[in-house]
Write a structure and sequence with these properties.
The chain has 3 helices and 4 strands. It has 88 residues and is of the alpha+beta class. It is flat and about 35 Å long.
């Protein structure tokens, strides 16, 4: 499964790295994972942590007003510590 995720991310990120301004943020949300990738004004989020961690994502977005929506949302797997915070 991790190989498939890595391949999908590579297919998305490699063109961005070659042609665009790419920034990757890894959010500290405790248990679980959350990454935000920004490329040429578009953004995607990968995982969202536990349900109570949505506030951390909101705080990040307030500090980065250039990210006003996520074009893509990726849930790597259905464990609560990865997808719980995405609905928020």
């Amino acid at each position: 499964m991790r190989k498939i995720i890595a391949l999908v991310l590579a297919l998305i990120l490699i063109p961005c790295m070659a042609l665009a301004d790419l920034t990757v943020y890894f959010l500290d949300i405790g248990q679980g994972d959350c990454a935000v990738i920004e490329c040429d004004g578009e953004a995607m989020i990968i995982d969202g942590g536990l349900p109570g961690k949505s506030d951390h994502v909101y705080s990040f977005l307030k500090k980065h007003p250039e990210i006003n929506r996520f074009l893509y949302m990726v849930a790597t797997h259905p464990d609560n510590d990865h997808i719980g915070g995405l609905p928020g």
